[in-house]
Design brief:
Hyaluronidase domain-like, globular, mainly alpha, about 65% helix, DUF309 domain-containing protein, about 0% strand, TTHA0068_sf, DUF309, 10 helices
């Protein structure tokens, strides 16, 4: 049985649909996956991490990276046939992903209109209703949204990586110390 906190899913969908920050989607779903405790690389969360990684690469014109991520996601799904509705998506997600994967090389990136269950749009509207005159205006906007903000599009290159670099340097130093012994 798949269990994921609805609050986490809403954070994920807010980044996926409203902000189109696929890097942050990856972080949210990876954290949810690792918080389970008994996680494996076969879990449904990994499938969703791969999808948003594919979207991230595709938007940046890295078709090879996108294809690799989509292929791995679809292979994982083929092996496990996850209940995507437990994560707020409709079953149509799989056919849309297959089609997207097949046409990566000959179709310029456009954000996917992710097929989600009604509660997802309704919850997102509740979060953002003060920004829209109506639910219809909200849904029209999100169906046409195309985020091009460079800080979001190129998140992994522009983020502060000082802590990652420091951790890698410490690990290298430990390894060198072990070799000396």
């Amino acid at each position: 049985m798949i269990r994921i906190d609805k609050k986490i899913l809403l954070q994920f969908f807010n980044e996926l649909i409203i902000k189109q920050d696929y890097f942050e989607c990856h972080e949210i779903m990876e954290d949810a996956w690792k918080d389970k405790g008994d996680f494996t690389k076969e879990d449904a969360e990994v499938f969703f991490v791969l999808i948003v990684t594919g979207e991230y690469h595709y938007r940046r014109d890295n078709v090879i990276g996108a294809a690799t991520s989509y292929k791995r996601a679809l292979k994982l799904y083929g092996k496990h046939e996850y209940d995507v509705t437990a994560f707020g998506f409709t079953e149509q997600l799989i056919s849309l992903l297959q089609e997207r994967y097949q046409h990566l090389a000959d179709t310029p990136f456009k954000p996917m209109n992710f097929p989600v269950l009604n509660w997802v749009y309704e919850s997102l509207y509740d979060m953002h209703q003060d920004e829209y005159e109506s639910y219809s205006a909200f849904t029209l906007d999100i169906l046409e949204r195309f985020e091009k903000n460079e800080e979001i599009v190129h998140r992994h290159r522009l983020r502060d990586r000082e802590d990652v670099i420091e951790a890698r340097l410490e690990a290298l130093n430990r390894k060198l110390e072990q070799r000396k012994r």
